[in-house]
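Thought: the user wants the 3D structure for the chain below. I'll pass the sequence to the structure tool as-is, report back what it returns, then summarize two notable features.
Action: structure_tool
Action Input:
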Amino acid sequence: MTTPTALDPGQARSRLHELTVIDVRTPGEYAGGHVPGALNIPLDQLDRALPDIRTAAEHGDILVVCASGARSENACRILAENGITAATLAGGTGAWTTQGHDLRRPEGAGRTTWSMERQVRLTAGAIVLLGLLLGLVVHPAFQLLSAGIAGGLVFSALTNTCGMATLLAKLPHNRPRQADLDTTLARLRGSRHGERR
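Observation:
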């Protein structure tokens, strides 16, 4: 499998007016700040959006964005498997802000959800501590819980995937509301008819 094409933040910023930008983070992460004009289609909803993304790609280039670049690379691979060429934002929104570019927030966005990376760190750390504590207080076998998380983290690093993030993405605060996703797909359809943001 080939590595997706990557645009650095400077290249992407200079081309925003001609790109269809798709942010594959969770809705909560997106609400916390996104690249101007980005449409939020979470990674686990990408299959549903494929027909609209394919049509948009026929009219211009697609840029896929996430927090660090890992999820957007996975999204680009999924798109490539479905005959859609897309580029990823190198370093994600983290690199975007590091280079001094502003993020947009939806109007009326209240409390934002933590980034998926932060949610994973909290969950993994809490489970490890719980396993160690239960291993000391209840029974040593509970330490296997901590060992399992450690093994999962090593596997995650080696494969550049994250099963815990996949599970956490299914929590209600990380899920798009149906109406929001429908609105996003309608905007995506509109973007191919010259309604660039």
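Final Answer: Structure generated. Confidence is low (pLDDT under 50) at residues 192-197. Strands lie at 5-7, 19-23, 39-40, 61-65, 87-89.
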